[in-house]
Specification:
This protein has helices at residues 18-29, 40-50, 57-66, 71-80, 100-104, 107-117, 160-171, and strands spanning 92-97, 131-136, 148-150, 153-156, 179-180. By secondary structure, the protein is of the alpha/beta class. The chain has a 5-stranded mixed β-sheet with strand order 2-1-3-4-5, covered by helices on one side. Helix 6 (107-117) runs parallel beside helix 7 (160-171). The longest helix is centred in the N-terminal third of the chain and has 12 residues, at 18-29. The protein is globular. The protein binds FE2/S2 (inorganic) cluster (FES).
Length: 202
Amino acid sequence: MSLRKPAKDQPDKFEFNSENLELAKNIVKNYPHGKQQSAVMALLYISQRQNNNWIPLVAMKYIGKLLNMPYIKVYEVATFYSMYNLTPVGNYFVQVCTTTPCMIRGAYELVEACKEKISKNQNEVSTDKKCSWTEVECLGACVNGPMVQINNDYFEDLDKEKTLKIFDQILNNEQLKPGSYRGRKSSEPEDNRKTLLENKNA
Ligand code: FES
């Protein structure tokens, strides 16, 4: 499991650019009067997108002021959910699921691959600034574990060797192929169905 700590080096300033400010105001309008704090998750996500995929503490303070909510409450939300990055990440951001179903199928081999090819410690950007990695909880693709998410795509049915090859492709700027690395479509069984055989559409 990833230890979630804010980055040591923090910028002094953050505010939404005009486009994101407009977007934030429109999101806030979706909530009834007095309930504008419910927009906090969406606003945190927008701030992350604007700030190279991570959220500095000043952005949490800024959002607190915008939503008229205490900074500590924004901080609690941002530090709870692993989809919010609290430290800078690489252009290729690798999230390795190490929750039980993936773990018993070899997720820690993928962690080894990350340590070998990206950086010794998680939440550390590689020396060429291209990649970073972190451990996360279940990403909802348990049937195809072990798996990693790289930016917005899932790479499934992996082992250490296949994961190292994917990282080599990243380093060589090659096109990545998301999906199963054992040739499965979605979460289908590998050797045809074994249950519900009487139901053609199952
Ligand atoms: S346990 Fe890894 S995706 Fe669910």
